[in-house]
Structure formats: structure tokens, C-alpha cells
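I would like you to sit down with the pair of lines that follows and say whether C-alpha cells and residues agree.
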Amino acid sequence: MDSSVVVLGRILDAATEEFGHKGFSGAKVDAIARRAGVNKAGLYYHVGTKEKLYEAVLLRLFGQVAGALERAVPADADPRQGFAGLTGALADLFGRLPMLPRIMAMEMASGGATMPEAAMAEFRRIFAVTLTILERGRTAGLLRPAEPVFVHLTLVGTLVVYSLSKPLRRRFAAAARDLGLRLDLPLAEAAAFLADTIARGLSVDATPGEEHHATS
């Protein structure tokens, strides 16, 4: 592999950690360079300014999310199963890329104040997966019409919050011991619960006549 590609990968990995922990404003280029094992001049040579570096990080992260969701929800899949594919893929990504939900939460909290325009195209791909599931389900008569923004934020936002709340849930576990709550359930179970809840809530219930016709 080209050495410059390897160095760039180390820089982006280091920048993802720094931005994920401290946000765009708090992240320091010097700290990123140290994490990546390069000098500041080398970092600027490979990536450019701090803004360009943040853009590269978001493009890589959001590109991974968009690609994973598109693969998880193939065009020939039952739309009702699409929600499980979407949430399952997100849970897997959040497990492998722990800085991803942190950066997503920061961007949501700031209203995308530091999100570069180039990253919006990848963000659009992510939202399009939810929109496609809903449109295909409605067209096929399997899902009731629903506001895509509400559905998308319910699925993605809940998984972001659940992922980030792990340390708090651990602390709360002792105080809530007498309540019998299970606060250590894996993210994959939260993903499956969300998918099932949304799919059941939006599914079109067949009338008795339709059920008889379908089985006759």
C-alpha cells in the first residue's frame, strides 16, 4: 500500500478520536498530529486546514454509514424488514466506530453548525434509506404513510442516545437495582426492539376479507 495512503489513514483515525472526544472547536491540530505520529507540517501537507480535516473525517464516517445502510436494505427486500436492516447496520457501526455516535450527537446538538456542505451529500444518502423504505412500503400497501423525519430521527436518534448513555446507565444501575431494570442490554437488542416497534406501528392491518382472499 502507498505510504501516503497509510499516513492519511492514521491522520484520519487520530482526527476522528480527537473530534469525537472534544468536538470541532475543542480539537487541537497539534494533538491530532501527535496521535497520528506525524508533525504538524506533514498533517497539513496530507489534509490541509483543520476545517478540511474535519470535512475528511465526516465524509469518511458518513460515507461508511450510507454504504452500510444501502447494503443492509436491498431493493428487493420486504419494506417491513428494512427497518431491521437499517437499525442492525447502525448498531454494528456504532459498535465498531465508537466516535461515530459521538460526532453525530455533536452535529445534531449544534444544528450542523460545523458540518461542511460536502458532508451533506452523504447525510442525504443516509436519510434516503429511511425514505425509500417508507415509500416502497406505502406503494406496496404494506406500510401506512408516515412522516419520514419522525421515523428517521426515532431510529437513528434513539440508537445514538442509547449508545452514548452506556456510562450513565452503568452508574444508574446501582441506584435502580430495586426497580429490576436491565440497563446493560446490548445495542443490538435496542436496534431490534426499535425496528420491530416501528414496523408493527406502521404496518397496514389486513381486513378479514383481504386475509380470506389472500389464503383462498
Remarks:
- Residues 105 and 160 are 7 Å apart (CA to CA).
